[in-house]
Specification:
The complex is a heterodimer.
Chain A lengths: L6 E4 L6 E8 L3 H9 L1 H4 L9 E7 L6 E7 L5 E12 L3 E8 L8 E11 L3 E9 L3 H13 L7 H8 L2
Antiparallel strand pairs in A: 1-2, 2-8, 3-4, 4-5, 5-6, 6-7, 7-8
Chain B lengths: L8 H5 L2 H12 L2 E2 H6 L5 H13 L3 E6 L2 E6 L5 H6 L1 H31 L1
Classes of the chains: A alpha+beta, B alpha+beta.
Pfam family, one (chain B): HTH_5
GO molecular function, one term (chain B): DNA-binding transcription factor activity
Protein name (chain B): Putative ArsR family transcriptional regulator
Chain lengths: 162, 116
């Protein structure tokens, strides 16, 4: 299927941040709802071949959230954070922590900005800031552990090659 | 025990001078003196950057007569695009579902209006 909604991912080597930018065929009010209403979030945020379960999800300023992705083998991956700011329909700033890390403290600061575009369309810019370059690179790598890509051995070798 | 320095394409392109060197010699192979002449930093510093680039597999040095030419190997740069692929696939999967959901939200909104 050809889509005009091209996605951009920017992650420069040696930096602690990454950007994900995507356009949608819907005004930002609607996209904001899909990002913040747990009944809607659960329908799209889960990775392929995983079941997403919400423990709690209060996406309002000062709120908190926790959800779990479960793979077909029953392995569960928990994620949680607090919401620093949720300003409908323009911005959400929240922390994000993967509970499977060997120790606590690897917290990510995520900002999602929702901009309107002409013709009832909109754009979402997600900016994630990690505690270290290693944290960011490790997160990108972790996608592979979840089986989202075949032939990842080559990449694994590359990143481990120190 | 010493920790080996990281030597891969990511290390190679992490430094702006090394990115400029790659850009310069990608057009045509050059010897060390000509490369150093294009930068405001010392020849030994440029030499060190070239050494790292060769260790990272992005540059090979070819001897031609008395001259040693630096030549770019672009294949390893493919790893940079590959590196982001898992993340790209994750978000493409999510946004594909989100597109679908937004479409349905349109539909249910219209249905509600019709009922009124």
């Amino acid at each position: 299927m050809i889509t005009k909604n091209q996605m951009q991912i920017k992650a420069e080597p040696g930096r602690q941040e990454l950007f994900v930018v995507r356009e949608f065929d819907a005004p930002r009010e609607k996209v904001y709802r899909a990002f913040t209403d747990p009944k809607l979030v659960v329908q799209w945020l889960g990775p392929k071949n995983m079941t997403m379960t919400i423990d709690y999800y209060d996406c309002t300023t000062g709120g908190k959230y926790r959800y779990i992705h479960t793979d077909p083998n029953g392995n569960a991956y928990g994620f949680n954070g607090v919401v620093h700011e949720a300003t409908e329909p323009e911005r959400v700033i929240q922390t994000f922590e993967f509970e499977g890390m060997p120790e606590r403290g690897h917290v990510v600061l995520d900002s999602a900005v929702f901009d309107d575009l002409p013709d009832g369309r909109s754009k979402v810019t997600i900016h994630s800031v990690y505690g270290s370059v290693a944290d960011r690179d490790g997160m990108i790598q972790s996608g592979m552990e979840h089986g989202m890509r075949e032939g990842f051995d080559r990449l694994d070798d590359l990143l481990d090659n120190q | 025990m010493t920790v080996a320095a990281r030597r891969d394409v990511f290390q190679a392109i992490a430094d702006p001078t090394r990115r400029n060197i790659i850009g310069l010699i990608a057009k045509k192979p050059m010897n060390l003196n000509s490369i150093a002449g294009e930068f405001d930093i010392s020849r030994p510093a440029i030499s060190q950057h070239i050494k790292i680039l060769t260790e990272c597999g992005l540059v090979i040095i070819r001897q031609e007569g008395r001259e040693r030419y630096c030549e770019v190997q672009l294949e390893p740069l493919g790893a940079v695009a590959d590196w982001l692929e898992p993340l790209r696939e994750l978000w493409e999967h999510r946004f594909g579902k989100l597109d679908h959901l937004l479409g349905n939200m349109h539909a249910s909104y219209k249905n509600k209006k019709k009922k009124k």
